[in-house]
Amino acid sequence: MDGPEFELEEVLDGSLLSGRNGAVQLPVGTLFNRVAKERVCEDGSHELVESIPVQIVVREVEIWRKSVPFAFARHSAGLRVDGPEMATLNALLQSRVRHEVVYLRS
Q1: What torsion do the CA atoms of 72, 90, 92, 16 make, to the nearest 10 degrees?
Q2: What span, in angstroms and rounded, lies between the C-alpha atoms of 105 and 74?
Q3: How far apart (Å, rounded) are the C-alpha atoms in residues 57 and 41?
Q4: Does the N terminus or the C terminus of the chain have fewer Cβ atoms within 10 A?
Q5: What is the pLDDT of residues 23-59, one digit of tens each?
Q6: What's the structural domain count of the chain?
Q7: Nearest residue to 80 via CA among 2, 25, 28, 5
Q8: Residue 87 vs residue 14, higher pLDDT
Q9: Which domain holds residue 41?
């Protein structure tokens, strides 16, 4: 994955997403255009379960309850976001089963 990617753990208060950033820094203002659910296979590979177009914008990045300009690569963070697809994110997270992960991607 070349662009920003964020592995979602949970939605904390409606617009604050908890999770782990991917391999590149993720600045405030990032637009995610896809949410994907993947199954992690026994060999460590990922199999796409579902992929949905979204328009989710990062309005704030929080690390240790402090607002920062970006999420560091491969670090946990909270993202305060805007977008009409929050119900879609919640549904995908709630429908996860063991060995499935949900990602926001640009």
Answers
A1: 0
A2: 14
A3: 30
A4: N
A5: 999 999 999 999 999 999 999 899 999 999 999 999 9
A6: 1
A7: 28
A8: 87
A9: 5-105
- pLDDT, position 1: 57
| 78 contacts 15 by C-beta, under 8 angstroms | no
User: For residue 36, what are the β-bridge partners?
Assistant: 51, 103
Residue 66 has which token pair?
């402090």
In Å, how far are 30, 67, 89 from 64, measured between CA atoms?
A: 20, 8, 23
CA distance 24 to 90: 24
Tokens of 51: 């992929």
Whether the model pTM is above 0.70: yes
Give the CATH number for residue 58.
2.40.30.10
- What pLDDT does residue 76 have? 96
DSSP string, 21-78: E-SS-EETT-EEEEEEEEEEPTTS-EEEEEEEEEEEEEEEEEETTEEESEEPTT-EEE
